[in-house]
Amino acid sequence: MSARWLVPLMLLVAGQTLLRADLTQVKAEPNLEKRSKLALDHAGATLKEARTVYSNSDVAKSMALIAEVRESVELAEQSLKETGKNPRKSPKYFKRAEIETRALLKRIEAFQDEMSVNDRPSLDSLRTKVQQVHDDLLMGIMEGKHK
Length: 147
Known about the structure:
Elements: H1 2-19, H2 23-27, H3 32-55, H4 59-82, H5 92-114, H6 124-143
Helix pairs in contact: 3-4, 3-5, 4-6, 5-6
């Protein structure tokens, strides 16, 4: 009976590995809007991995993954800017990014609460950057200005 569950479990793990694309693969996406979405998906998956690694007491690897989350968020922001589109006139990807950055902020705050008091400041710069990207996206959608 356990063998019957083993194959679907292995396929699930393999699928999750494939979904979490390497950041260089994300950068290779020619469509800027899709690149932005892929970068934010990558940021979310990497943050999840950083939490797991941190809970296993590998602080150094966790900090490297946190830096990769920041790089992913910056890539998403830059990709949307490079589209040259007005967020108010074409809000689909801008609104999606705004929603995903808000969710990412909540996950960062939850991760920070789980961390040791001494390690918490390591997430401050990431949290500030994600908040700034979120606010810029929201202002662009609300005001219609392309920043």
